[in-house]
Specification:
Helices cover 41% and strands 20% of the residues. By secondary structure, the chain is α/β, with parallel strands linked by helices. The structure holds BIS(adenosine)-5'-pentaphosphate (AP5).
């Protein structure tokens, strides 16, 4: 899938493509022209996928062949936010599986720095141990680099746990990264603590488990599961305080594109709500584009 800030294409439609000749166009041949502004984006898995030649069918008409297609289409850009253990990472697994976006989790990037023993990692750990936000000097650059990566640019991105302050939102905007949708997971506090203390991670696959709600499938996996250093009841309370202090400032930056999701149901129930919002977003984008088949 490719991306760009604008889209224009011309399609030649013929009721009998085999007879088409460049020197003498057939009577049924027509030209379609589409354009879109740089302020919105498109999702290429629908109507106009990466192919350059596509058959369209209609129940009452002979099949048409579209010769020529979109030059380039912008992919989805999604943010997901919520309190500690609200289920961001869990939902990101499901979203990326269905929509193929690149998952960029600020917390994961920081833990990778800690594991690598870098100077940034050492500084980050001091703040994470106290449940505080890691300074912007470290986080902003890290996230920007991942967003600029060729995979994120090509496939679209799913930003998890960033931004967490108005300064981070502003920095992102200044770098030219604007999301299509801001998903906020809402989960009551008593559930959050239970989710944190029961969370386990598979270091081999990166999959997130919960001892009660999402137990490992085999004994072998169970034996290798690890716990996060900040997943204690004491530390999650500090992380929650930090979340409450900052969440309103971040929400105010994205209120026009925010969808609030009830995050206390099962992970499939939560995903159904998110999936509905993403499907609606795609439908809107297709509506703006217009459909070739219409
Ligand atoms: P980060 O790693 O982002 O932690 P967090 O925001 O506290 O969120 P979690 O990863 O703990 O939870 P989650 O919402 O992903 O839940 P999960 O799906 O795993 O950040 C860690 C630290 O890094 C921060 O405290 C901060 O210091 C620093 N940091 C990060 N971003 C930063 C930024 N932008 N700026 C500055 N500093 C930053 O689910 C949790 C558990 O619940 C799992 O066991 C799961 O199986 C279970 N579960 C999930 N959904 C359900 C469900 N529906 N039903 C039952 N169980 C469920």
């Amino acid at each position: 899938m490719a991306c760009c800030s604008s889209l224009n294409f011309t399609a030649t439609i013929s009721s009998n493509p085999q007879k088409q000749s460049s020197s003498s166009p057939l009577p049924f041949t027509s030209h379609l022209s589409f354009s879109k502004s740089s302020s919105s984006s498109l999702y290429s898995h629908h109507t106009l996928s990466g192919t350059h030649c596509k058959k369209l069918s209609h129940p009452n008409a002979a099949p048409f062949l579209v010769l020529g297609c979109a030059r380039k289409i912008e992919p989805l850009r999604i943010m997901i936010s919520g309190a500690p253990a609200s289920g961001k990472g869990t939902q990101c697994e499901l979203i990326t599986k269905k929509y193929g976006l690149v998952h960029i989790a600020a917390g994961d990037l920081l833990r990778a720095e800690i594991a690598a023993g870098s100077e940034n990692g050492k500084q980050a750990k001091e703040h994470m141990d106290k449940g505080q936000l890691v300074p912007d000097e470290i986080v902003v650059t890290m996230v920007k680099e991942r967003l600029n990566g060729p995979d994120s640019q090509e496939k679209g991105w799913l930003l998890d746990g960033y931004p967490r302050s108005s300064s981070q939102s502003i920095a992102l905007k200044e770098f030219g990264f604007q999301p299509d949708l801001f998903i906020l997971l809402e989960v009551p506090e008593e559930i959050l603590v239970e989710r944190v203390v029961g969370r386990r991670l598979d270091p081999v696959t990166g999959k997130i488990y919960h001892l009660k709600y999402s137990p490992p499938e085999t004994e072998e996996i169970a034996a290798r599961l690890t716990e996060r250093f900040d997943d204690t009841e004491e530390k999650v309370k500090l992380r929650l305080q930090t979340h409450h202090k900052n969440v309103e400032a971040v929400l105010s930056m994205y209120k026009d594109i925010t969808v609030k999701v009830k995050g206390s149901g099962s992970k499939q129930e939560v995903f159904a709500q998110i999936d509905g919002a993403l499907t609606q977003l795609l439908d809107q984008k297709q509506g703006k584009l217009g459909t070739v088949a219409a």
